[in-house]
Each structure stands twice: as structure tokens, then as C-alpha cells.
Amino acid sequence: MFTLIDHIGMAVEDLDQAVAFYEDSFGVQDWERCEMPERSMKLASTKIGDTLIELIQPTSEQAAFAKFLKDKGPGIHHIAYRVEDINAALEQLKARGVRLLDEKPRLGMHDTLTAFLHPKNGKQGVLMELVQHQHSASHH
What pTM does this model have? Predict the structure, then answer.
């Protein structure tokens, strides 16, 4: 089902400070910034090897991860796995008894479809995201 790790999402309190830390400490310079007011967040992303790192800052208490940040502090918020067909993956997971946070995929960054799985699945404690890239896989 999973084809690779698509990205790792990190909750941060201050996006500019987090980007500066990666730039100053690790020399990571190539950042794409995006504001998603409909989801009450702004983010910066960069590729490290084949994996995208997303630094995500809530812009209001309505952000899906604002409570996570308040309760747990900055850190890894979710791991996203790439799938070929997100609708088929969601159907298979639901049939297998996996709790879904998103019954249907929604639009994500970079022409993707995304859906989240409940972090209590299998007592893993990790929020998982499925990602389907809508363009040809040869572009990655």
C-alpha cells in the first residue's frame, strides 16, 4: 500500500525561527513557503533527499494541530506515506477496521490528495497521513 515516506510534518511555534534553525545549523536553504488560511496554518517545506520536511505553524486556535502544539510542544506531528490510489487505500483501511479521520481525501500542497488516519490505530500514537500525487510519478 505505502510506496514511500512522502513527508514528515513538524509542529512549530514560530515558523521563521524554525526555518532559521535549519538554515543556520544544517545549511538547508531551499524553502517553499505556503499559507493555508482555510486550515489556519502556514508552513515551510524543503526536501532532504527524497523526503519532504514540513514545518507547520498554527495561525489560530482553530488549526487542527494547535492543541497538539499546546499540549505536547513543538515536534513531529505526523508522518505521511505516499499511496498510488488514495480512495482505494481508504476503502481497504476502513474494511480492515482502521479508524479514519478523513473519510474522503482533500486537496493538499503540490497537487496532492491527502487523508489522515487516527493516531490511536494499533496503539501506535502516531498521526498518519496518506498522500496521492495527482501528477505522474516520473516527476518525483
Answer: 0.87
Q: Helix (H, G, I), strand (E, B), or coil: what is residue 26?
A: helix
Secondary structure class of 122 (helix, strand, coil): helix
> Strand 51-58 vs strand 41-48: parallel, antiparallel, or unpaired?
antiparallel
CATH 3.10.180.10 fits 4-139, yes or no: yes
Each residue's pLDDT tens digit, 26-66 = 999 999 999 989 889 999 999 998 889 999 999 999 888 89
Q: Residue 34's closest CA among 112, 122, 130?
A: 112
Instruction: Determine the pLDDT at residue 50.
Output: 86
Contact indicator for 130, 86 with CB cutoff of 8 Å: yes
Length of the chain: 140
Which candidate, 107, 53, 97, places its Cα nearest to that of 79?
Answer: 53
